[in-house]
Amino acid sequence: MKSLALTAGTLAAAALVWYTVPSFAETARRVPAPTADLAAQPGAKTETAVFAGGCFWGVQGVFQRVKGVSNAVSGYAGGDAKTARYDEVGSGRTGHAESVRITYDPQQISYGKLLQIYFSVAHDPTELNRQGPDTGTQYRSTVFAENAEQARIANAYIAQLNQAKTFGKPLATTVEMSKPFYAAEDYHQDYLTLHPSQPYIAINDMPKIDDLKKLFPESYKATPSLVKAAKSG
């Protein structure tokens, strides 16, 4: 993604390049649900989760279409405020990962279910510091735990999937305690929904939406929860 300048002229020129290369989209599978999960606290209506798994366009697009999710914001996590800018993060030297902050109703969907979708559909958790055509630590597979309980559930789930050899090789996913999350620039928000035919999106990310609908029909919603709609509301 970082090689694409986000202007109409550049995207049009880049289309010729992206259409000539094979798809890097990973093969999705519905992995077993976690054996441990977080119980919803009585009366709790809002919780947050932060996941990194490659370019945030696709990860955001997936979770915007999950029932129980009210918002999913593309941004940066793992680094400092002064480097939380797209041009800085793209260097791979900031500590940031392209991430998505998910706001969800724990009465409708659990943290464990979000993790199951993350590992099944949103990205390939066996890739180290890359996803598809994108390389660098900013594209790493990381769960940014908001608290000790989220860290416990995420670590237990990774161990469960590794022990079962679900992917045939060890997961590269790390669990980090969450640092401040910084929302990405406005032009990155809702990018998949606004540009479904853009070559990078069509090749690498739209298949994830199809996989979500196919593998998790009980969790799929056709109308995404968009950042722009949340702001205007």
CATH superfamily: Peptide methionine sulphoxide reductase MsrA
The CATH class label is: Alpha Beta
Which structural class fits the helix and strand makeup? alpha+beta
So what's the overall shape? globular
Helix content: 25-40%
Computed CA radius of gyration, to the nearest angstrom: 17 Å
Mean pLDDT: 91
Question: What is the count of β-strands?
Answer: 8
Structure description:
This protein has 233 residues and is an alpha+beta fold. It has a single domain, classed as Peptide Methionine Sulfoxide Reductase, Chain A (2-Layer Sandwich). The chain has eight helices and eight strands. The strands form two sheets. It has a six-stranded mixed beta sheet, covered by helices on one side. A two-stranded antiparallel sheet has the order 4-5. A hairpin with a 2-residue loop joins strand 4 and strand 5. Helix 2 crosses helix 4 and helix 2 packs parallel to helix 7. It is globular, with a radius of gyration of 17 Å. The protein starts with 7 loop residues before the first helix and ends with a helix. The N terminus is likely disordered.
Short structural summary:
The chain has helices spanning 8-18, 56-63, 86-89, 111-122, 148-163, 191-194, 199-215, 227-232, and strands at residues 47-53, 69-77, 97-104, 130-131, 134-135, 141-145, 174-177, 182-183. By secondary structure, the chain is α+β, with helices and mostly antiparallel strands.
Write out key terms for the chains shown.
single chain; 233 residues; alpha+beta; Peptide Methionine Sulfoxide Reductase, Chain A; 6-stranded mixed beta sheet; two-stranded antiparallel sheet; disordered N terminus; Peptide methionine sulfoxide reductase MsrA; Met_Sox_Rdtase_MsrA_sf
